[in-house]
Fold this sequence. Notes:
Blueprint: H1 2-33, H2 68-78, E1 84-85, H3 86-95, H4 105-115, E2 119-122, E3 126-129, E4 138-139, E5 146-147
Antiparallel strand pairs: 1-3, 2-3, 4-5
Amino acid sequence: MIESTTGxxxxxxxxxxxxxxxxxxxxxLEKRLGIDSQPMEPESVPRSPRLTVSMESIPVGFFHNLSxxxxxxxxxxxxxxxxxxSKEIINAFRKSGMQVNPKNGTTILYTTLARxxxxxxxxxxxxGLAEWxxxxxxxxxxxxxxxxxxxxxx
Length: 154
């Protein structure tokens, strides 16, 4: 049952990602064609219920063949809007059977997430996805400049 649940969860997340990509492509085509697209559903109502996964229910192999950054992103996406501490992320990795260095695993995770533009470091030593905080200033790809959503560099 656990293996089938893992497969279903992964399939569900892949389909949601594909849906988001398709929605973006459709919007782009409509814009290019000059079609005024009206949202079919109100923006405040989620299109489908989001499934949250508790730390206790993470099955073995859930992060199989994923880097720490990809696994952390997957974990955070399964719990939208809920930042996790480095310790919580490491514990989830260990629960799934992912190999984590016991001496400096937290340091390695911190460095990995801090260097990755998809993650935001929050107060209280927690990590969230950058997409959850659209107004927050972000580093440029080179890591030197900080820019806001309007593209102005500081």
